[in-house]
Amino acid sequence: MEKELKGACIIGQSGGPTAVINASAYGVIRTALDTDCITKVYGAAHGIKGVLDDKLYIMDEEDPHELELLKNTPSSELGSVRYKIADPEKDDTDYKRILEIFKKYDVRYFFYNGGNDSMDTCEKISRYMKNVGYECRVIGVPKTVDNDLFGTDHCPGFGSAAKYIATSCMEVSKDARVYDKGMITVVEIMGRHAGWLAGSAALASYCGSGPDLVYLPEVDFNYEKFCEDVISIYKKQGNVLVAVSEGIHDAQGRFISEYGSTTAQQKDAFGHAQLGGLAVQLADELKKRTGAKVRGIELSLLQRCASHLASKVDVDEAVLAGKKAVEAAVKGESGKMVAFERKYVNGKYTCRTKLLPLNSVANFEKKVPLEWINKEGNNVTKEFIDYAMPLIQGQPKREVENSLPRYARLKKIVAK
Amino acid sequence: MEKELKGACIIGQSGGPTAVINASAYGVIRTALDTDCITKVYGAAHGIKGVLDDKLYIMDEEDPHELELLKNTPSSELGSVRYKIADPEKDDTDYKRILEIFKKYDVRYFFYNGGNDSMDTCEKISRYMKNVGYECRVIGVPKTVDNDLFGTDHCPGFGSAAKYIATSCMEVSKDARVYDKGMITVVEIMGRHAGWLAGSAALASYCGSGPDLVYLPEVDFNYEKFCEDVISIYKKQGNVLVAVSEGIHDAQGRFISEYGSTTAQQKDAFGHAQLGGLAVQLADELKKRTGAKVRGIELSLLQRCASHLASKVDVDEAVLAGKKAVEAAVKGESGKMVAFERKYVNGKYTCRTKLLPLNSVANFEKKVPLEWINKEGNNVTKEFIDYAMPLIQGQPKREVENSLPRYARLKKIVAK
Question: Domain B158-304 maps to which CATH number in 3.40.50.1970, 3.90.79.10, 3.30.110.10, 3.40.50.460?
Answer without folding.
Answer: 3.40.50.460
